[in-house]
Design goal:
alpha/beta, Rossmann fold, 4 domains, nine-stranded mixed sheet, 28 helices, phosphoprotein
Length: about 850
């Protein structure tokens, strides 16, 4: 399969010429060590550094698009001054780490630094703040952030598709190339500071979703976590992205991927299943995806707030003064508060329409209820933002003209920079807070509101409340906001339903105080215990657990560009060398050879199921060696196998996983004598599920019934398969059958029918004939073949064998298996069989095979 366009020119767009970024100052403690494991010889091992470090202090590297810094340039001297951004969650999450943890930040600055100043600024940021700046060229920065991130990823992740030119920007490959280049630049900076053996790297948000691929490619065992702060869309939306696979594979190069809600995680897992064919399972309460032998864990935990930071603001004199001012200004009035960014997804206009309807339907609120809408500065200045702003202003004007009068303004719109003190004062005074976004990642406004409503001693005095007065709060929260699931006492609304939102606001201000107190207590208990320190500590603990087995397996990287991934398998698992097995083949004289059919001697994806003439010739040559006993062990029917392999007269066949078996074309088929009356029960049930599941079909074998759903919708097919499995297990509880679920199948077959039983029977037959095997080879590619591997491996300890045979259990494809060896594909299998056939006695007359050289984009 050819490499996709998005990664075909990958190395060009990540080249030094495109990314002429200055190096981090050499005084930076660059500590890299070689992980203690021997290179495996089959791929890339973790690279060795030119320096080592004796530093044993625990270190976390936090990577985000922007550093948690403020920057200001003195126009007089031209010097830069920097300060920490105390409101940044990247800075606040340090509270979740131990005091002796060193935290290094990698990211960009919010200002442009001239090239001649960059080295000096980088050194200053490193010395003063432990920050490593990533200076992107202005052109790359613009296309990366304002282009791909804000014009394509951000709208898509908020469910906005570019259906027409006026509704979002269409995919632009130049912007994608800039995104990849920027991620490569971030990776270079991380590589300069990381100690891959000890450090933990935590990447934040959608700006850096392919960064894990670059880092994993450089250090196969790097300890890497990723947290997405935005929503993750459903598969129906996400699949429209032309580079969907590259981004999914980028995220899967992490060890732990975090989401705010289960919905976001579920969408991601669905995309992995539908687009990459990956299954997930819950392992002791933790969701894990098996990805080429690595387990990628999924973390679901919403971010919290910094309690201390908020509480300190509440005690500021400026906050208390603002509270007194608000209290006086809105005397005898109830306040509903909204605090939102100015963008099309925050639902400000919908909120205003609902408030307008509330005043129309409940005239008793006119003159007594005020909506305070604080608008944070817009993060972009696109056409959509300008239209949203225009609509907001016109709606506010209309409401105030219709319902307002001297001394009463129903809606107060604060569209300017608001200080923390001012916002905290409004939070504290508001009877209700409403978050009405149509789609949002997390949104911490409700959390901040709850803490401010809890108050402080200074705040109580400013509000004229007694110290032990009961606290109340009411929240109206959109069900499409990430914080909604954690606020079970909030009034959840569909922001598009104006009537429902209006009624929710009515309920919020009229509900009895006793219930307000109970809701507040429940929410405040959660918010105060699940703060940002708890979030960071919990994420890092899960990351440490996800990485604990890194050095128990052999790792090597495969794949070009953004298709790169790491294979992680048992240390004893290695590729089966033709020379190695031929050597064993030549020095043995009683050989048992077991071969699967589909996916082993014939490609699984092939439309033509019959073997090629080359395969038939090689099998016939192996069978004609009197020292060989060769069996094809397949789930196929005996009729198909007999027809396809008829030229191989001495080839043994085991059809339908061993229910039917014969040793050659001249011998009769033997069948297990079992009762098959259960088929009358199973067939109508499977037929029912086939009719109810579009794309599924039923396969009727002589000894088994199989329900296939590979062509059905992946989610629905999987759901139906689970239901069918339970259904059949219940009705067949007293029947001598096995009901099992495989890859896109549900199969019912007689008990005791396995490929492993075939191997045991053949080896036992050889022992009884005085020809106990001293060479056993078994090759297969799927789960059913694992029974054969297990069976032949157990023969080593079989007391009936005079000498333990040389055993070669080999799976096709690099994946976790009971086999000790692997071959890459069917081409490798046929090549190996040809090597054995050429070593046979008598020498076979083999036609020269024509091999087509293919380069899979999954291999370097």
């Amino acid at each position: 399969m050819m490499a996709s366009r998005s990664c075909g020119n990958f190395f060009d767009l990540a080249s030094e010429e495109l990314l002429n970024v200055p190096q981090t100052p050499r005084s930076l403690p660059r500590v890299m060590t070689l992980p203690g494991i021997l290179p495996d010889g089959n791929g890339n091992s973790d690279a060795e550094s030119d320096t080592t470090s004796s530093v044993c202090r625990e270190r976390k590297i936090i990577v985000a698009n922007m550093l948690p810094l403020h920057a200001q340039k003195d126009n007089g001297t031209g010097n830069w001054s920097f300060s920490l951004d105390e409101d940044s969650i990247l800075l606040q999450l340090k509270d979740g780490f131990t005091h002796d943890t060193e935290v290094v930040y990698v990211g960009s600055l919010k200002v442009d630094i001239e090239a001649k100043e960059q080295e000096e600024v980088a050194q200053k940021l490193l010395d003063d703040f432990n920050c490593v700046p990533t200076f992107l060229p202005q052109d790359i920065q613009k296309k990366f952030y304002h282009g791909f991130c804000k014009q394509q990823l951000w709208p898509l992740f908020h469910y906005m598709l570019p259906m027409c030119p006026d509704h979002g920007d269409r995919f632009d490959r130049q912007l994608w190339q800039a995104y990849v280049s920027a991620n490569k630049s971030f990776a270079d900076k991380v590589m300069e500071v990381v100690n891959p053996e000890d450090d933990f790297i935590w990447i934040h948000d959608y700006h850096l979703m392919v960064l894990p691929t670059f880092l994993r490619k450089r250090y196969n065992r790097i300890k890497l976590g990723f947290f997405l702060h935005s929503p993750f869309p459903s598969s129906e939306i996400y699949r429209t992205l032309p580079v969907r696979d590259e981004i999914l594979k980028g995220l899967l190069n992490s060890d732990l991927i975090g989401f705010h809600t289960f919905d976001y995680a579920r969408h991601f897992l669905s995309c992995c299943g539908r687009m990459l064919g990956l299954d997930y399972e819950s392992k002791r309460g933790h969701i894990g995806l098996d990805y080429f032998g690595r387990t990628v864990y999924i973390k679901i935990l919403p971010v919290g707030i910094h309690m201390g930071r908020l509480e300190s603001v509440l005690n500021l004199p400026s906050t208390c003064n603002k509270v007194k001012e608000i209290r006086e200004q809105f005397k005898d009035k109830k306040l509903i508060l909204g605090v939102d960014d100015m963008d099309i997804f925050k639902g400000i206009s919908l909120k205003l329409l609902a408030f307008e309807q509330l005043l129309q339907q409940h005239r008793e609120f006119q003159g007594k209820l005020v909506l305070i809408q604080i608008v944070n500065p817009a993060r972009s200045s696109g056409k959509d933002v300008q239209e949203a702003k225009k609509e907001t202003y016109s709606t506010v004007k209309r409401i105030n003209e219709v319902f307002g009068y001297p001394g009463y303004t129903p809606v107060i719109l604060i569209d300017r920079h608001s200080s923390r003190s001012e916002k905290s004062a409004y939070y504290a005074m508001a009877e209700c807070c409403i978050v009405n976004a149509v789609r949002d990642g997390m949104n911490l406004v409700p959390y901040k509101y709850l803490v401010c409503r809890q108050g402080s001693s200074s705040m109580d005095e400013a509000m004229g409340m007694k110290k032990d007065s009961p606290r109340t709060s009411m929240l109206v929260v959109s069900e499409f906001v990430g914080c909604s699931p954690s606020l079970s006492g909030a009034i959840r609304v569909n922001p598009w339903d104006i009537d429902a939102v209006a009624e929710a606001m009515n309920m919020a201000v009229t509900i009895p105080d006793a219930e307000k107190q109970l809701r507040h207590q429940k929410h405040y208990r959660y918010v105060s215990t699940h703060d940002i320190a708890y979030w960071a500590r919990s994420f890092m603990q899960d990351l440490q657990r996800a990485c604990k087995d890194h050095y128990d397996k052999r790792c090597w990287g495969i794949g070009l560009g953004l298709s790169f991934r790491v294979i992680s398998l048992s240390p004893s698992f290695r590729k089966l060398s033709v020379d190695h097995i031929v050597s064993a083949y030549k020095r043995t004289s009683r050989r048992a050879i077991f071969l699967d059919y589909d996916g082993t001697v014939v490609p699984q994806s092939s439309m033509i199921s019959s073997p090629t003439p080359d395969v038939v010739t090689v099998l016939d040559a192996l069978c004609n060696d009197p020292n060989n006993t060769v069996f094809i062990v397949s789930g196929r029917s005996r009729a198909s196998l007999s027809d396809w392999l008829a030229p191989c007269e001495k080839l043994g066949l085991a059809a339908e996983h061993g229910y039917f078996i014969r040793s050659s074309t001249t011998s009769d088929w033997e069948a297990l004598t079992t009762d098959l009356d259960w088929k009358k029960i199973v067939e109508p049930i499977m037929k029912l599920y086939t009719e109810a599941t579009d794309g599924s079909y039923m396969e009727i074998k002589e000894s088994a019934l199989v329900w296939h759903h590979q062509d059905a919708d992946s989610d629905f097919g999987s759901c139906q398969a689970k239901e069918l499995l339970v259904h059949l297990e219940n009705v067949l509880a007293n029947e001598p059958v096995v009901v099992r679920r495989g890859q896109h199948i549900v199969e019912v077959k007689p008990q005791g029918v396995t490929k492993g039983l075939v191997a045991e029977k053949v080896i036992s037959m050889m022992v009884n004939d005085g020809k106990a095997p001293n060479f056993v080879m078994c090759i297969g590619d799927d789960r059913s073949d694992e029974d054969m591997f297990e069976s032949i491996l157990s023969t080593v300890s079989n007391p009936t064998l005079p000498v333990a045979p040389e055993i070669f259990a080999c799976t096709v494809g690099q994946k976790p298996s009971k086999a000790k060896y692997y071959l890459d594909d069917t081409t490798d299998v046929v090549k190996l069989l040809r090597g054995l056939a050429n070593s046979s006695n008598p020498k076979p007359r083999l036609r020269s095979a024509r091999f087509q050289v293919e380069f899979d984009n999954g291999f370097l």
